């Protein structure tokens, strides 16, 4: 009994120890897989490269990586100086270090050290080593004798200035009782320092760095017909002749780019941040020279262990080449530097599932690891072959291009939403492969056919639902969750909105669409169903979080303003309640939750709001990150690789949390584009400017459209009417007919013929009556007695309308370079007022329809913008305006509607209005073109 009690006590003690010390004991003695370790040097290096001047800088990650790889150092422990100009000596130092020749350069510098004069130290170790880097660069052919001579070439004035400075500095030592030999030695050292400062410490040019990099990584200079990239730049003739082939080689490799789309700036300067990016771009070309190997893999497991009384951590790596190895680190002792989500740290920030590229030195030590935020991409097509033993499959995409995909152990395979395995992927199956960089993270197999139908599916039974990302005349790209999918629009694709036929131009970026297909193997769309206005953005709010109801999924805001025509207008209610039922809640670039927002009470937010069934719902919310700055300007530069853009000569970042709105739709940040007119609310925090809300200028109703059509408005006299045609002519002897182009009336001298059809809407705004289009078609016999209205009958009999003025609303369609012009609507005999032969009272407005008043025959326009012909831009007007409609022709999505059908106009519909100021009360509308 005693022995049993002792054994039980022992087992309890062991169990207690296991619970108290949750470490496993691990031995690598019998493993078949390589074991790499951290490095004490890397732990020490990490403490010296935590720079505080990189926050928000576009080169932050590149600078951190260049420093972690010991190729570039900071100016001190806390400063990298990314905007500081690079000198000749510094650039050569970086190139030589990247080649793994740092030790050679330091030894060469030591060999050139000048003798010391007593206790006087003029030349530091850095000065001596700089000479060594220049010497090694010359010996390796990176720096040519010609380039060295050009750098060292000084004018007589510069040499005289140096001699004067030498005398001044030597005067400091006059009372030191130095011998002539010692004075001579000091004189030479001072002269050497000043000469180096005047030559090698001058700013280096971009073309010179390109040449040095080209030689360092042994790029073949490019000549002849292969030389194409340099010619894209208007300043290519400014590149030194002998450097052009090397600059071309560097451009072709993507190591450098121009300073803009049209300039390389060969004589321009290079900053330390730009050099850091260049280091990252070329580093992998020099791995062998530096004694490094790169491995791409994924953290498959993380285990904390105790070994010889020390806490250690083991990372199990599954690599892209299907190999496996371990990384053993001793936290804070023998570790390695990592970069993840733009943050520099040690290995502790790594997590299971992280895809990492890491570098091993010749001592089998990991010296650096980077978890790159690779852009996610999609590959779609059909399986051509599967190799289970090699974990590979071949995919044939819709362009008949073959891709060989290697799967990682963590690659998730699903078929019709259910978990699967590689063996379940069959030949001919349609799949969507998700890639992050070069790594396959997920494969979705699609089995939509009845096996007894031999590939046939019922028409429309295969569907896709998503938000329009991009659309043109033959292609639509949609976002389905985080996926991007592209499909083909054909001449037979049916377009529907609210179960009625629609035009292609009515589909906008940000619209929710349902695509249906008749063929499982084809990307050709059978029909596109567009969701109606419920998902359009009704308001953009800015306010403070008053409270959050997590259970009810509601946010209460106080001090609320809303965006309207470039201004923030105070909300009439003290507090506004919003439903928050989706996951598009952001704190900067990262998603957040209602629980986190509840803890941020009193913080300001921006919210894009939809209004469905009278309830305001959050479409997207962004927590304000700093002090607000507002801009209304154009995008003059944009880089999606770094998520930065330039607006009004200021650089801004944008991110997944940025609210972007266009045409009253919430759109993706990828819909931002160069030269767009935008309104932006940005946050300034620690010098970084980050966009929180961007309103992209709406596409104009009269702009060219994706289906090759556009609406044109003309103002002129009816010159002739004939068989299905009408000709527009001069307004008067001194005035040609007018065309509304770029929102301004311009004169056109030559008569123009338009097609008139049975569907053309013809309106006499003098009589305020619709005219049957058949009365205008010459080839038919029209009995005047058939015209019931007496005044109209007289006008038809007397060909009254010949020579009378009119607005012509014309749809122009361009096919294969030929344009067809069809009259959609004709507004006859408007009251045009002349002033010395010029029209002076018509003006154009863009607006949204706030209200339709059928009793008074008016519509109220909000978000008004008037065209300023002097400045050639739209300018916002305050308030709203009622417009009289009884003289107007109205078109809704290219379909004319009668005066009795004006009730079909919807609130929030976009309108382009041509109106005339006849009284101080309301303007008279003559042409109203509506998209809804």
From TrEMBL:
The record's InterPro entries line, in alphabetical order, gives:
SLH_dom
Q: Which residues form the SLH domain?
A: 46-109, 230-293
Q: Which UniProt keywords apply?
A: Repeat, Signal
What PROSITE patterns would the database entry show? SLH
User: Secreted: is it a keyword of this entry?
Assistant: no
Look up the signal peptide feature and give its range: 1-27
Instruction: Answer yes or no on keyword Aminoacyl-tRNA synthetase.
Output: no
Q: What name is this protein filed under? A: SLH domain-containing protein
């Amino acid at each position: 009994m005693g022995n049993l009690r002792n054994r039980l006590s022992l087992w309890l003690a062991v169990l207690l120890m296991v619970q108290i010390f949750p470490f496993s004991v691990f031995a690598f003695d019998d493993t078949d897989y390589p074991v790499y370790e951290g490095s004490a040097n890397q732990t020490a290096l990490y403490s010296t490269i935590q720079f505080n001047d990189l926050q928000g800088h576009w080169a932050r990650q590149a600078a951190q990586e260049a420093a972690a790889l010991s190729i570039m150092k900071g100016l001190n422990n806390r400063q990298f100086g990314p905007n500081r100009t690079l000198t000749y000596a510094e650039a050569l130092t970086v190139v030589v270090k990247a080649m793994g020749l740092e030790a050679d350069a330091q030894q060469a510098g030591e060999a050139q050290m000048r003798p010391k004069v007593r206790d006087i130290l003029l030349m530091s170790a850095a000065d001596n080593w700089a000479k060594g880097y220049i010497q090694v660069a010359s010996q390796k052919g990176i720096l040519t004798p010609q380039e060295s001579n050009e750098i060292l070439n000084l004018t007589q004035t510069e040499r005289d200035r140096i001699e004067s400075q030498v005398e001044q500095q030597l005067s400091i030592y006059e009372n030191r009782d130095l011998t002539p030999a010692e004075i001579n030695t000091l004189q030479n050292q001072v002269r050497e320092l000043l000469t180096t400062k005047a030559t090698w410490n001058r700013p280096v040019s971009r073309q010179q760095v390109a040449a040095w990099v080209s030689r360092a990584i042994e790029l073949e200079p490019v000549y002849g017909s292969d030389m194409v990239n340099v010619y894209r730049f208007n300043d290519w003739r400014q590149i030194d002749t002998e450097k052009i082939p090397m600059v071309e080689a560097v451009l072709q490799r993507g190591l450098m780019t121009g300073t803009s789309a049209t300039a390389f700036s060969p004589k321009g300067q290079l900053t330390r941040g730009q050099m850091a990016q260049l280091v990252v771009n070329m580093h992998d070309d020099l791995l062998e020279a530096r004694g490094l190997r790169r491995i791409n893999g994924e953290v498959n497991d993380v285990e904390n262990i105790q070994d010889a009384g020390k806490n250690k951590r083991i990372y199990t790596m599954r690599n892209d080449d299907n190999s496996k190895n371990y990384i053993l680190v001793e936290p804070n002792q023998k570790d390695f530097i990592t970069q993840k989500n733009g943050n520099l740290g040690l290995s502790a920030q790594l997590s299971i599932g992280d895809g990492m590229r890491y570098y091993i030195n010749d001592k089998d030590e990991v010296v650096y690891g980077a978890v790159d935020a690779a852009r996610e991409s999609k590959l779609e097509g059909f399986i051509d072959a599967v190799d289970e033993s090699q974990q590979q499959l071949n995919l044939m995409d819709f362009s008949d291009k073959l891709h060989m995909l290697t799967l990682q152990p963590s690659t998730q395979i699903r078929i019709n939403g259910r978990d699967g395995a590689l063996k379940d992927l069959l030949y001919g199956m349609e799949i969507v492969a998700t890639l992050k960089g070069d790594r396959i993270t997920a494969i979705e197999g699609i089995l939509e056919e009845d096996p007894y139908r031999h590939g046939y599916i019922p028409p429309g039974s295969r569907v896709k639902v998503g938000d329009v990302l991009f659309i043109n005349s033959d292609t639509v790209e949609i976002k389905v969750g985080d996926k991007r999918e592209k499909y083909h629009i054909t001449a037979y694709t049916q377009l529907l909105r609210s179960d009625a036929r629609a035009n292609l131009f009515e589909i906008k970026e940000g619209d929710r669409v349902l695509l249906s297909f008749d063929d499982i193997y084809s990307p050709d769309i059978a029909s596109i169903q567009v969701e109606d206005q419920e998902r359009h953005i009704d308001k953009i709010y800015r306010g403070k979080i008053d409270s959050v109801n997590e259970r009810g999924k509601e946010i209460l805001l106080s001090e609320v303003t809303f965006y309207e025509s470039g201004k923030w207008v105070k909300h009439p209610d003290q507090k506004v309640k919003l439903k928050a039922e989706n996951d598009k809640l952001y704190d900067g670039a990262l998603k957040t939750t209602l629980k986190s927002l509840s803890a941020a009470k009193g913080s300001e937010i921006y919210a894009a709001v939809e209004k469905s069934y009278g309830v305001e719902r959050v479409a997207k919310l962004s927590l304000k990150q700093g002090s607000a700055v507002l801009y209304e300007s154009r995008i003059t530069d944009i880089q999606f690789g770094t998520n930065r853009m330039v607006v009004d000569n200021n650089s801004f970042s944008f991110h997944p949390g940025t609210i972007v709105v266009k045409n009253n739709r919430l759109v993706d940040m990828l819909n931002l584009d160069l030269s767009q007119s935008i309104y932006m609310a940005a946050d300034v925090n620690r010098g970084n400017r980050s966009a929180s809300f961007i309103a992209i200028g709406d596409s104009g109703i009269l702009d060219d459209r994706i289906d090759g059509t556009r609406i044109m408005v003309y103002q002129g006299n009816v010159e002739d009417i004939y068989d299905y045609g009408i000709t527009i002519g001069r307004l008067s002897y001194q005035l040609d007919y007018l065309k509304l182009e770029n929102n301004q009336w311009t004169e056109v001298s030559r008569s123009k013929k338009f097609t008139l059809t049975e569907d053309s809407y013809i309106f006499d705004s003098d009589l305020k009556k619709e005219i049957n289009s058949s009365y205008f078609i010459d080839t038919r016999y029209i009995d005047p007695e058939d015209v019931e209205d007496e005044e109209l009958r007289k006008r038809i009999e007397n060909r009254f309308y010949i020579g009378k003025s009119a607005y012509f609303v014309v749809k122009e369609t361009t096919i294969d370079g030929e344009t067809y012009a069809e009259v959609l609507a004709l507004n006859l005999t408007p009251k045009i007022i002349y002033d010395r032969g010029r029209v002076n009272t018509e003006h154009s407005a863009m607006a949204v329809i706030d209200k339709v008043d059928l009793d008074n025959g008016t519509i109220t326009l909000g978000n008004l913008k008037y065209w300023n012909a002097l400045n050639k831009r739209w300018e916002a007007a305050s308030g709203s305006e009622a417009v009289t409609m009884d003289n107007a022709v109205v078109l809704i999505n290219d379909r004319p509607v009668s005066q009795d059908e004006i009730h079909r106009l919807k609130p929030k519909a976009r309108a382009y209005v041509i109106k005339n100021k006849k009284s101080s009360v309301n303007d008279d509308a003559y042409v109203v073109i509506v998209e809804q």
